[in-house]
């Protein structure tokens, strides 16, 4: 059975037919590095879903993340369409999120500040924007797709972010003439953490994509700093999906402190229950590798995967994330 169309109603994501809140609970699948290899998008995504299910991590949603330079051919667009259709038949909603298409010359996330980075390595280029427009044109008939504007905005000014968000949204919207209105996922500044200040989109069309990574202290003896003060003004006003979250190591890289992820989501859970309303979903980063939930052959859970299972067992009822 095909999935019902979704709508954004104030701080809730709901089924358009019944008005029942929908809570996203899933994983991110990264499509553009060695993990996928030569497999098609459909082959790789179906492989990840099968093995993660077999290991006890079931999902009602996935976030497909990619670099536009690696998935922009007409064959890739057809592969996306087949994948979305397969996921819809499996009862799985999909978030599409373009990642940084360029890196600094040495392959790192530097230099800082963004104004000094040649070609703005950490902002979407025209290729990134056009790919999302092309995907919207290809996939607009599906009810299970949410379109991400950009994975993480850097520490840049709000005016620059707002201009990009409005431009990409309007171009995606133009693909939906005489059909339903698309829902977009919008990231914050400071690598997805900071949502302070107004966004240019009206309510009812967007979901906040929060990356709840505490700021590393730089000292193993000093606790990391929670970042909910950067996004908590969204609560009760717009739906929130935590597509990335968890403890970072002391150099700011995810994964090394995965045993502390539970404390991070417990903090978020407590914050949610101290506030009156809204839909809150979360998705674990990512499928395989040193930061993933399972080994590259899909046979065993990693430390992060075991932490994810603990999360699911600690918070088994999705309704706890709808208040």
Quaternary assembly = single chain
Q: What is the ordering of alpha helices and beta strands?
A: EEEHEHEHEHEHEEHEH
What integer is the average pLDDT? 82
Q: Order of strands across the widest beta sheet?
A: 3-4-5-6-7-8-9-10
Low-confidence residue ranges: 103-119, 250-257, 319-323
DSSP strand content: 15-25%
Individual helix count:
7
Main β-sheet: number of strands, strand sense, barrel status?
8 strands, parallel, barrel
Short description, anyone?
The chain has 323 residues and is α/β, with parallel strands linked by helices. 28% of the residues lie in helices and 17% in strands.
Give the key terms.
323 residues; alpha/beta; 7 helices; 28% helix; disordered C terminus
Would you kindly provide a written description of the structure presented here, covering whatever features stand out?
The chain is of the alpha/beta class. It is built from seven helices and ten strands. The protein has helices at residues 41-54, 74-89, 126-139, 158-173, 189-192, 261-273, 303-314; strands spanning 6-9, 12-15, 25-30, 61-67, 93-99, 145-148, 184-187, 206-212, 240-245, 280-284. The strands form two sheets. An eight-stranded parallel β-barrel has the order 3-4-5-6-7-8-9-10, surrounded by four helices. It has a two-stranded antiparallel ribbon with strand order 1-2. Helix 4 (158-173) links the parallel strand 6 (145-148) and strand 7. Helix 2 crosses helix 3 (126-139) and helix 3 (126-139) runs parallel beside helix 4. The longest helix is centred in the N-terminal third of the chain and has 16 residues, at 74-89. The model is unreliable at 103-119, 250-257 and 319-323 (pLDDT under 50).
